[in-house]
Automatic annotation (TrEMBL):
<dbReference type="Pfam" id="PF01839">
    <property type="entry name" value="FG-GAP"/>
</dbReference>
<dbReference type="InterPro" id="IPR013519">
    <property type="entry name" value="Int_alpha_beta-p"/>
</dbReference>
<feature type="region of interest" description="Disordered">
    <location>
        <begin position="1"/>
        <end position="27"/>
    </location>
</feature>
<feature type="compositionally biased region" description="Basic residues">
    <location>
        <begin position="15"/>
        <end position="27"/>
    </location>
</feature>
<dbReference type="Pfam" id="PF13517">
    <property type="entry name" value="FG-GAP_3"/>
</dbReference>
<protein>
    <submittedName>
        <fullName>FG-GAP-like repeat-containing protein</fullName>
    </submittedName>
</protein>
<dbReference type="InterPro" id="IPR028994">
    <property type="entry name" value="Integrin_alpha_N"/>
</dbReference>
<keyword id="KW-0325">Glycoprotein</keyword>
<dbReference type="InterPro" id="IPR013517">
    <property type="entry name" value="FG-GAP"/>
</dbReference>
<keyword id="KW-0378">Hydrolase</keyword>
<keyword id="KW-0677">Repeat</keyword>
<dbReference type="InterPro" id="IPR000413">
    <property type="entry name" value="Integrin_alpha"/>
</dbReference>
<keyword id="KW-0732">Signal</keyword>
Length: 511
């Protein structure tokens, strides 16, 4: 039987230490199922009403509004889900945006067994290993690109595939498979995805990475999408065998066109998970930066200092062991500032870890601080704020329970003195900290309730013996609050949690 774990790991899968089982405790454990957490909303309704949308709040962008109702939606990955009896087939749970908090009852589960979705659910496809939202056909409603790096095609075994599900008034519907590049030895295509307007025509494009080599393919959005890719290749990241670890997009030089951050490796320099920035990768005038500070298995792009140019945050959760080239015990994140020329040369990158002054906790081996990163304006002050996942942080005696640290942006950049940590032993957070929950394996900052502030979504893929789940914590003018927080477990969405391998819901987010 074809298994995902026979592949080179995807960016999301690589966050789990190789050779370490999902659960290490031999003792029975009480399950603090997210959907039943006391800190969640009233059981009957499953939602918490939030304050009315401020009159001056601008409607969100269409990039992740699947049904066009003005609220941003969120797709949550469950790449190891059992579907129609097929292990590791994969699924995606769609969480609609609204003025109310998320509820399990409102979610929709999609897979390759759903009507109109190309292909079929097969063992090892890992459909949902990567997800990215964008309005690729320019119809005013967002679409969802879903990677299946274990898909078998006519080109061979585990070549991989990307399916685009089209948005409409009823949400996501039928899909279309992208044309796979005719590259010899193609493996794990669709293991990483990012949406952005890379050619400046006002329409979202899609960047697709693969696991076998460090090529990145650009599919241009528009009425003809999905056409064949342009053939852009990330040539600054050569000699790689781990493939593309991460993709992130944003306008770093402020020219109105999105730029692309690519994370991969360079074995010649023994520089694992190196990051490069490609300015306007969809145009012939792209410029390559192969030496972006910070080695990242995760990356996010956003304007943390409010100067009109996006900055780059890369997360490197690896240890300084001489192999993965980590720079801080327990992991770190690096902030590299954007500038008119691409990357700031007069302003040094800033490295933040858990021994940085003001940061909660302490840098300890294998915390994996930086396993995930997300940028968004939490308090509505015009500066992007940062959420950092440390999915192997120990919480009390709960090993690898996981935590998320939040940093606020300012004119001077990210502020560490006001940073704060959230985990399942924090008052008001759904559930309880348990060994191997891996809270923070994925994070997202998205304004899904349209109040002008980015709310925090946290993936907990190890919850309930690996069934997984996610939680939503609302934003306020002073930061993330646990009041009204909601947890949703995999079984409550309708995902199958039986079988040899659990679904690990919460492994990735679309925004």
């Amino acid at each position: 039987m074809k298994r995902v774990n026979a592949l080179v790991p995807t960016a999301a899968m690589a966050r789990r230490p190789r050779g370490r089982p999902l659960r290490t405790s031999s003792r029975p454990r009480a399950r603090a199922t997210l959907v039943l957490a006391a800190a969640t909303v009233a059981a009957a309704a499953g939602v918490v009403p939030l304050a009315a949308t401020p009159a001056g709040a601008a409607p969100p962008g269409v990039r992740d509004d699947f049904d066009g109702n003005g609220y941003r939606d969120l797709a949550v990955a469950a790449p190891h889900a059992l579907v129609d009896g097929q292990e590791h087939a994969g699924a995606v749970v769609v969480v609609p945006g609204s003025a109310a908090a998320p509820s399990a009852a409102a979610t929709t589960v999609l897979s390759q067994s759903s009507p109109g979705v190309p292909g079929a659910s097969e063992a090892g496809d890992a459909w949902g290993a990567a997800v990215a939202a964008g309005d690729f056909d320019h119809d005013g409603r967002a679409d969802l690109a879903v990677g299946a790096p274990g898909e078998d095609t006519g080109q061979g075994v585990d070549v991989g595939a990307v399916i685009v599900l089209w948005g409409g008034s009823g949400g996501l519907g039928a899909g279309t498979a992208l044309a796979t590049p005719a590259t010899p030895g193609l493996t794990g295509f669709g293991g990483t995805l990012a949406a952005g307007d890379f050619d400046g025509d006002g329409v979202d494009d899609l960047a697709v990475g693969q696991q076998g080599v460090n090529d990145v393919w650009i599919y241009r959005g528009g009425s003809g999408f999905p056409a064949a890719p342009t053939g852009f290749e990330a040539t600054a990241l050569t000699d790689g065998v781990a493939g593309v670890a991460t993709l992130a997009a944003g306008d770093i030089n402020g020219d109105g066109t999105d730029d692309l951050v690519v994370g991969g490796d360079n074995l010649t320099a023994r520089d694992y998970f190196r990051n490069a920035v490609y300015l306007s990768p969809g145009s012939a005038s792209r410029r390559v930066y192969a030496g972006l500070a910070g080695h990242g298995t995760s990356a996010a792009v956003g304007d943390v200092d409010g100067d009109g140019r996006a900055d780059v945050v890369t997360g490197h959760p690896r240890e300084p062991d001489g192999v993965f080239q980590g720079t801080s015990r327990g992991g770190n994140v690096t902030v590299t500032y954007g500038a008119a020329g691409g990357l700031a040369t007069s302003r040094a990158p800033v490295v933040i870890h858990q021994n940085t002054a003001g940061v909660p906790g302490a840098a300890e081996p294998e915390d994996q601080f930086g396993a995930s990163v997300a940028l968004g304006d939490i308090n509505g002050d015009g500066y992007a704020d940062l959420a950092v996942g440390a999915d192997q942080e120990n919480i009390g005696e709960a090993l690898q329970a996981g935590a998320v640290t939040v940093f606020h942006g300012s004119a001077a950049g990210l502020t560490t003195t006001t940073s704060y940590s959230l985990h399942q032993n924090t008052a008001g957070v759904p559930g309880g900290a348990e060994a191997n929950d891996r809270l923070g394996n994925a994070v997202s900052l998205t304004d899904r309730n349209r109040d002008g502030r980015a709310d925090l979504a946290i993936g907990v893929p190890g919850e309930d013996e690996g069934a997984g789940g996610f939680m939503w914590l609302p934003a306020t003018a002073t930061g993330i609050t646990t009041t009204g927080s909601v947890g949703v477990g995999a079984s409550a969405t309708g995902l199958a949690v039986t079988g040899q391998y659990p679904p690990e819901l919460g492994s990735d987010f679309s925004g």
